[in-house]
Every structure is written in C-alpha cells, then in structure tokens.
Amino acid sequence: MDEQETELPPHVLIIPYPAQGHVNPMLKLAELLCHGGIHVTFIVTDYIHGRLLRHSTIVQSHLASYSGFRFEIISDGLPKDDPRSGDKVGELFRSFRVTAKPLLRELLRSDPVRDSDSGRKRISCIIADGAMSIATDVGEEIGIPVIFFRTTSACYFWAFFCGPKLIESGEIPFQGNDMDVPIKSIPGTDGFLRRRDLPSYYRVSDVADQNLQAIMSETLQTTRARGMIINTFDELEGPILAEARLQCPQIYTVGPLHAHLKVRLTSKVTSNSLWEEDMTCMTWLDVQPAKSVIYVSFGSITMMTNDQVMEFWHGLVNSGKRFLWVIRPDSVIGKDWEKHLSTEILKGTKERGCIVGWAPQEEVLVHKSIGGFLTHSGWNSTLESIVAGVPMICWPYFGDQQINSRFVGEVWKLGLDMKDTCDRVIIEKTVRDLMDGKGEEFQESSDQMAKLAKKAITEGGSSYCNLDCLIRDIRLMV
Ligand code: UDP
C-alpha cells in the first residue's frame, strides 16, 4: 500500500440480493457508511439499476452527492425481458448466485489495478446479503473479510439457523395436518411458536426440498463471516438475539435503518423505490379524518389469485372503514378481475377507498389519517409500521413473513395475525377489531414500541452505538 493510499478512507463492497426488500435497506446502510466517511462500491443488477434510476429519488439526490459512492452494475443472469415476478423467486436466486460469483471474483482481483488512480483504497471489506454466501467463498479465496447483512428479522435467521435441530428432532417435515402443533427445537420461542409460524420454506414433505436446503445452507454459513449486521434493534428481538449471539460471530443490530438514516442525516430522506410512487394517495389521505384509514399493502413480491383479491375487496368494503390499498399491477394472477365486482362494492370503494399501484409507503405510514396497516409482514414493512406506531393486521405470504407475523401478534402484541385464512367475513371482522374493538390496546403497545425504536437509533441508543462499532471495525480491517 503506498503512502497516498494510506490517507484515503476504507473502501467497502456491498452486494445485495436483487429485490426491493433487500436493495432498500442495503442502500440505506450504504448511505450511512458514506456519511460515516467510508467509501462504498454497491453492486447492483442492470435490471435494478434501471428501475432505481427511473423511480428512486434517493439515488439521484442523496447518493450522487457522496464522492465515495459508486455503483458497479452486473447481470442477474436472466433474460432482459424476464418479468422477475414474485412467483419465481427461486429462479432469480439460483441464477444470480451462479452469475455473480465469477463477476465478484473478477472485480476483486482487478481492484488494486483499477483503483490505483481512482482516489479509492483497495476494497478491504465485503458486506454481503445474508443470502449471498458466494461472497464468503470469494472473500476467503482473495483474503478479504466478509460481514453478512440480514435484511430480514433476527427471528427468521434464528429459525433457519436451528434448522438442523428441527430436522433431527423430527419436527420437520410435519407429520399429520395439524398446523397448531407447538415447535420445541428453537430456543427462545418456547410456548408461542407453532408449525404454521415457521418460515414458509419449512412447509415441505421432504427435507431434501431444494429451496429449504438452499436457505438453510446459506444461513449456516454465517459463522464463516467476520460478523453479521441485522436490520433490527435489541429492544425488539432481545431474547432471540441473546440466543443467536451465543452461536454467531459479532452481531451488529443497527435498525430500524430507514429511521436511523433520518436521524443521522437530519435532512429529508427520499425514497429508493423500484416502482413509480403514486402521490395522489397523499392528497386523498390529507382529507380523511385522523386514524380513520387502514393502509393495505402486500409488498413487492406477493402474488394473489383473483379469488383472494375478491375476498379482500369485499372484506374491506364491508368493514365500512376507509382504506388505501396498493395493488401492484403485476401482483394478480389472472385477468379481468375488476369486472366481477358488484355495483355495491364499487360504490363502497368510491366512497371510502383509494387504490394505487405503488405508494410512498414510509410517508403513508406516518400520515395522521392512518390508523392501521394490513400487511404481508415483510420485514421492512413491519419495521416501518413499528416506527410509525401503526398497529398491524398480518396476512403473511411467504419466507420470513410467517414468523414475523407471529411475533407481531403474540409476542409484541402490535396487532392481529390472520395467516392461512383469506375469507371476506374474517377480513371484515379483523379490520373492525383492529380499527375499533381492540384498537386502543394495540395503539398503546404500538406507541410504546415506536418509542423504543426511536430510542435505539438516538445517540447513545443500542443501534446508534452498534453502527459506530461497525464503522470502527471496518476501519480496523484496512
Ligand atoms: N413499498 C413501497 N410502496 C408500496 C409498497 C411497498 O414503498 O406501495 C416498500 C416498503 O416501504 C418496503 C418495501 O417496499 O420498504 C417492501 O419490503 P418488505 O420487506 O416489506 O417486503 P417485500 O417486498 O420484500 O416482500
């Protein structure tokens, strides 16, 4: 290393899994690191990069203002016109792993040469998505330390880390159809976790299932890394983190990242959406009474059938509550579903509803008119709701959402878990229960949790201190 290079800040390579729920918090971490004086190269697929340039204001405004930030664009290996839809997550996962590994190796091998005149140090640390263990293969080969970044909850990570125990004890695969059987082999979850609350990948008849094996194997690689960053906070997932810390290397809990970024930057943080945000819903919200609207959104991947959309539509209208509903244009399997709606339902929608293709979710959740969130329990959505102090109804679709929703309903008491049902009568009743019946109780616990989240990211708080430790440790890796 020459003298000139020694004076430069450390340089980190960040590699997210190419989907909205992963890119979103990893870009936020990238910005926090840049703000902390670290140079960042952020690997992004051409598909995601194109969408970010089209729809994300954070990329154009904030990130471009850091001289130490740059994108490195690679392919995800899928054809250009592939819709990369939510029902093909496995395909993207396999294709990206295979394509990214040699590109990553090439990038790191050529790094010292390419960067000698670029005003950047050689990359001294890789921060890789927890689903990208290929980074540890390449990091070990080249001699660069890796820190994993889990964009999901600690409880999801832990449920997979304990996968071998679940299999050894015979709890997986499930014997019989009873989904309410308690789970015993995940320390820290005794007494409240049932089969139906396990991550959906455990719902298999054969433990050799490709997706289950892939995720379990990725998770077990965690111990190979120098550390693990989790977008959570100690006050939220304390008991699970205590168990995980006994087994895993250094864990940095730095979340909720979206709120943490706002605190550190003190300027207005804008979005990093992959879809165009329809701002008309904000004007609609402005004229609704305080806490009267239930916000309904199932994230960026969830796919729904015609029948499920119809059940939700009837349930929402029949609840008599105002609703703001995000229906992503690519999220419904089937065509012409709107044609089957009765005049009564259309009338109720016009009177009390607003439907958009994609919303500025963080802004929506903190709007004074929002009184509840009907969510798929994606981890980013859950954290955004927690910070905004909005009680939830959970309708998990897949992955981590089944376990997140159990924690929301049973452990944190922040709302109601409606998993494994999709019936208009239950939806109507659950919406009423959240907005009226048990509303006050949930609002109280949501307010308390929001306070804890804010404390964690304020100077001296757990996540605030952990981010400082992370930056210090990255500096020591040079
Ligand atoms: N989101 C948004 N507008 C929408 C729906 C979702 O900005 O209309 C954002 C949301 O704020 C969150 C992300 O998309 O940050 C979804 O991530 P999450 O982990 O909740 O679910 P996933 O999409 O990964 O299933």
Could you explain the architecture of this structure?
The structure is a single chain. With 478 residues, the chain is α/β, with parallel strands linked by helices. It folds into 2 domains: 3-272 and 455-476, Rossmann fold (3-Layer(aba) Sandwich), CATH 3.40.50.2000; 280-437, Glycogen Phosphorylase B (Rossmann fold, 3-Layer(aba) Sandwich). The protein has 20 helices and 15 strands. Strands 3-2-1-4-5-6-7 form a 7-stranded parallel β-sheet, with helices on both faces. A 6-stranded parallel β-sheet has the order 12-10-8-13-14-15, with helices on both faces. α2 (20-35) links the parallel β1 (11-15) and β2. The model has no long low-confidence stretch (mean pLDDT 92). The structure holds uridine-5'-diphosphate (UDP).
Quick structural overview:
This protein has helices at residues 3-6, 20-35, 46-55, 57-60, 89-114, 134-142, 154-161, 163-168, 210-220, 234-247, 257-265, 280-286, 306-319, 343-352, 361-365, 379-388, 401-411, 424-437, 439-456, 462-476, and strands spanning 11-15, 39-45, 69-74, 123-129, 146-150, 227-230, 250-253, 293-297, 304-305, 322-326, 332-333, 353-356, 370-375, 392-394, 415-417. The protein is of the alpha/beta class and 478 residues long. It has a 7-stranded parallel sheet, sandwiched between helices. A 6-stranded parallel sheet has the order 12-10-8-13-14-15, with helices on both faces. Strands 9-11 form a two-stranded parallel ribbon.
Structural key phrases:
2 domains; 14% strand; 20 helices; Rossmann fold; binds uridine-5'-diphosphate; globular; 478 residues; 7-stranded parallel sheet; alpha/beta
